[in-house]
Automatic annotation (TrEMBL):
InterPro entries: KR_dom (IPR057326), NAD(P)-bd_dom_sf (IPR036291), Sc_DH/Rdtase_CS (IPR020904), SDR_fam (IPR002347). This is SDR family oxidoreductase. It comes from the Bacteria. The keyword Transport does not apply.
């Protein structure tokens, strides 16, 4: 895990000083990047990703963005992402993989890869971040999926990981309620991302970006969760395309 490959700093002289702090994983993906761009308007954002070039692009968006290049599967190093943070207002888990396998071809390695990144990584980062979240009654946002509600043939591993992520969010919400921490699961439908394009094209299906949800629309849903009034928490948010996809 590297904190130096792409580094910016915040000082009391910068415009970001005094703003609430957000940490976003999967920041170089379609949804993660859109969330970073939106939150950076009024948050200091720690943008965690693995693509150095895209991280450098994020650094150019705003002085409020601090890119961090990290291997999220290095579990021993994950607590370093929040090391030194006395408070954390928003934690958004957007990192995920969605490789598709029929059950007959789903090896233990395939199961492990998706369960580790899609479930265990959010769980471990959240665990490490709890003291900083408690300090400011922060908000945890889990970017889930429509697959977190309904499984389909050929998609058992991804759906199982998203069902598990929903279970994690529901349990976490109960456990941190006394601390005033809010926990939300945001479930986007098909979204115009490189991940979806790869899935569609590998299955030999046409890809028409205009038919899918835009990442900025998912970011708007996250913004609604973050900006909810103090008396509520938006526990489950489904973001669906205007026209449901067939096949």
């Amino acid at each position: 895990m590297s904190y130096d490959a792409v580094e910016t700093t915040w000082t009391t002289e910068t415009t970001s000083a005094g703003l609430p702090i957000a940490l976003v994983t999967g920041a170089t993906g379609g949804i993660g990047r859109a969330v970073v761009e939106d939150l950076a308007r009024d948050h200091r954002v720690i943008a965690v990703g693995r693509n150095t070039g895209k991280l450098r692009e994020l650094a150019e968006i705003s002085s409020n963005v601090r890119p961090v290049e990290a291997d999220l599967l290095d579990f021993d190093a994950l607590p370093r992402l929040v090391e030194g943070l006395e408070d954390l207002d928003v934690l958004v888990h957007a990192a995920a993989i969605a490789d598709r396998f029929p059950i007959a071809e789903a090896t233990p390695q395939a199961w492990r890869a998706q369960l580790e990144l899609n479930v265990m990584v959010p769980a471990e980062i959240t665990r490490a971040a709890l003291p900083a979240l408690r300090a400011v009654r922060g908000t945890v946002v889990l970017i889930n999926s429509g697959a977190g509600f309904t499984a389909s043939g050929g998609n058992a591993i991804y759906a199982a990981s998203k069902f598990a992520l929903r279970a994690f969010g529901d349990a976490l919400r109960q456990e941190v309620e006394p601390d005033g921490i809010r926990v939300s699961s945001v479930h986007p439908g098909p979204t115009d991302t490189a991940m979806l394009r790869g899935i569609r094209e590998s299955a030999g299906k046409e890809y028409a970006a205009e038919e899918y949800i835009q990442p900025s629309s998912v970011a708007s849903a996250v913004r609604t969760v973050v900006d909810a009034t103090d008396d509520v928490q938006l526990t489950t948010v489904s973001v669906r395309p205007r026209a449901e996809q067939k096949g």
